[in-house]
Amino acid sequence: MHFGATSWSLSEADNAAIGHVLQRFLFDSNARCALVVDRSGQLVTTSGDRPPFDVTAFATLAAADFSANDQLARLIGERDFNTLFHQGEKESMLLADVARRVILVVLFDNRTTLGMVRLKMRGTVEELTRLFERMFTTAAARPVGQAPALLADVDDEIDRLFQ
Amino acid sequence: MSMINYASREINCKIVYYGPGLGGKTTNLEHVYQKVAPSTRGKLISLATESERTLFFDFLPVDLGTIRGFKTRFHLYTVPGQVYYNASRKLILKGVDGIVFVADSQVDRMEANLESMQNLYDNMSEYGYDLTRMPFVIQYNKRDLPNAATLAELQTSLNPGWEITEPSRQRHTPDVYHAGTYLVEQVATGEWVERATYFEAVAVTGEGVFDTLKAVSKLVLKALS
Ligand SMILES: Nc1nc2c(ncn2[C@@H]2O[C@H](COP(=O)(O)OP(=O)(O)OP(=O)(O)O)[C@@H](O)[C@H]2O)c(=O)[nH]1
Ligand SMILES: [Mg+2]
Description:
By secondary structure, chain A is an alpha+beta fold.
């Protein structure tokens, strides 16, 4: 039982597995970079070219954009829009839902096409869905509040943070 | 939804400032932004109308230091207080780890405070979150104004407490921020109640802003441990 939002953790192994999937996707699609953002706006990981902008801010806005569009979908009677596309003059971005928990954001330019990115993204989303579903099942199996031993007995350390 | 990232060695938590329109939520974030070292905070993002009313949210990431080698990074959000923005307000609550309710102390805003508090309970329960079991702090803002209600009046209407039925939690728990008072106590009728901790503030001068932030962040980290 939990009272608020559940907490989850990303292990180095999970991170590596996600990175692996993303790298293959970027190679196949020729997109520039991919970011994984959780629905509450936190950046999970990035892959590919180092984004030349503030990724924290980007992650927040992408999650907000996605949730706002989710609600728009419902208003017009769709369950959701599982992908969103924003086209710019040079840079474009495509966002896709993964397991209803995270969002895959892909940035690409004219070295590739929307069709190509979309095509390659399909399999990637499936692979990521499997990975994240497994991660969230493991997280749900853990008793509440049990952020892995990391935070045990840290009362004094927490106090120290605020001095 | 807090996230512990073992790869980047970060703990990320989400704190939402909630409350009636013009209560001072955005002002709280602006003060934090101005006062913390630029190296420990990111950009302040405000999605606002031309008249500076929050339209979707404000966002400010701050790093509070490290615990066991993990950076503790708090994502602070404000919601739009105006009643008709409920759809966007609700979206921002998604994945929240801790709530600060910024009440407007002015007597004529009491109704708006109550309505916003009710709206918070409703939106939280639609997500299946139980506000009474989460890190939750109330800030009575605008204490500088002559028409501010007394603290006792504000406590009575906005923080009357909720009943505690589990015997294991029925013990007097002092409020460390207000000597001589209790967060959990047995009231005259015999029932046990718990209240949220509160702070008085004047967000325009920064008074009480960090006390509030520290208290809620501590609660969030403790809830994780
Ligand atoms: N006198 C006084 N004014 C305050 C205080 N805090 C905020 N204000 C003023 O109240 C007005 C509204 O403040 P905001 O921070 O924009 O309020 P908000 O809660 O973000 O409002 P919404 O975005 O509409 O929900 C501004 O003009 C602030 O300067 C305070 O402690 N005392
Ligand atoms: Mg505001």
